[in-house]
Design goal:
- By secondary structure, the chain is mainly α.
- The protein has one domain.
- It is 73% helix and 0% strand.
- It is built from nine helices and no strands.
- Helix 3 packs antiparallel against helix 6, helix 6 packs antiparallel against helix 7 and helix 7 packs parallel to helix 9.
- The longest helix is centred in the N-terminal third of the chain and has 28 residues.
- The N and C termini lie far apart (61 Å).
Length: 226
C-alpha cells in the first residue's frame, strides 16, 4: 500500500521515464524535425517542387525566391525574435515554455506570419494556395494565443493539424491525386503527436485541441483566400 507521499511522487514522475531511451530519442527527433516553425518550409517546398501545377510557370530561381521569402518570414525572423526574447530575459525557456512564455512566443510569431501572408497576397503571380496556407498559419497562431489563456495547447499538434488541413484543402481543389500526400501527412501527424505525449507534459486534450485548431484554421484560410 503506497503512502500519500509515495503516491504523489509516482503521480508526478515524468512520463518520459516510462519509455526506453531509443523511443525517447526518436520522439525528440520527430519533435525537432517537424517543429511547427518548419512546417511552412515543408508545405512551400511541396507546392513548388512536388505539386504538378501550382508553380508550373516558375523557373528554378523563381521557386527558390518564393521559398526563401517564406523561410525568412515564417521561420528565420520568428526564430531570431524568440532567441532575442530569451537573451533579454523575457522568456524562461524556449524548449519547455510555460503558458506565460507562450504569450510572447505567439505574439512575436503572429507578427511575422501576418507579414508573410500579406507579402504573398500582394504578389498576384503567387498561387493563392500558398497565400491561403500562410493565412491559415496566422489565424491558427491567433487561435492558439486565445486558447493559451485557458490551457497549454500543443503547438506541435497545431502544426500537424495545419499540415493535414492544407493537404485536405489541396485535395478539395482536385489539382492532383492526394492519396499519398494526405496519407503521409496523417502518418507524420500521428508520429509527432505521439512523440509529444512521450517527451512533454501535454495531455491528450491539449494534443487533440491543437490538431483540431490547426486543421480548422487551414480550412478557414482556404475558404477565405481561395
Amino acid at each position: 500500500m503506497l503512502s500519500n507521499e509515495s503516491f504523489i511522487a509516482v503521480k508526478q514522475k515524468p512520463f518520459t521515464s516510462q519509455h526506453p531511451v531509443v523511443v525517447r530519442f526518436f520522439a525528440h527527433l520527430f519533435s525537432f524535425v517537424f517543429h511547427p516553425l518548419f512546417i511552412p518550409f515543408y508545405v512551400c517546398w511541396f507546392l513548388e517542387f512536388v505539386h504538378p501545377s501550382y508553380f508550373s510557370g516558375y523557373s528554378g530561381s523563381g521557386k527558390s525566391r518564393v521559398l526563401l521569402m517564406v523561410t525568412l518570414n515564417a521561420i528565420f525572423f520568428p526564430l531570431v525574435a524568440v532567441l532575442l526574447l530569451k537573451a533579454l530575459g523575457f522568456l524562461e525557456s524556449i524548449v519547455t515554455p510555460t503558458q506565460k512564455d507562450r504569450i510572447l512566443l505567439y505574439v512575436s510569431s503572429m507578427t511575422f506570419f501576418f507579414w508573410a501572408q500579406y507579402s504573398l497576397r500582394e504578389q498576384p503571380e503567387i498561387p493563392r494556395i500558398l497565400v491561403a496556407f500562410m493565412f491559415g498559419v496566422f489565424i491558427s497562431s491567433s487561435a492558439a494565443l486565445i486558447a493559451n489563456i485557458y490551457f497549454k495547447i500543443s503547438m506541435h499538434a497545431i502544426g500537424m493539424g495545419g499540415l493535414v488541413g492544407i493537404a485536405f484543402v489541396i485535395m478539395q481543389q482536385n489539382t492532383m491525386l492526394m492519396t499519398w500526400p494526405l496519407s503521409t501527412a496523417l502518418l507524420i501527424a500521428g508520429l509527432v503527436c505521439t512523440s509529444r505525449l512521450v517527451i512533454s507534459d501535454h495531455t491528450q486534450k491539449e494534443i487533440y485541441a491543437g490538431l483540431l485548431v490547426g486543421f480548422i484554421c487551414q480550412l478557414v484560410g482556404g475558404i477565405i483566400q481561395l
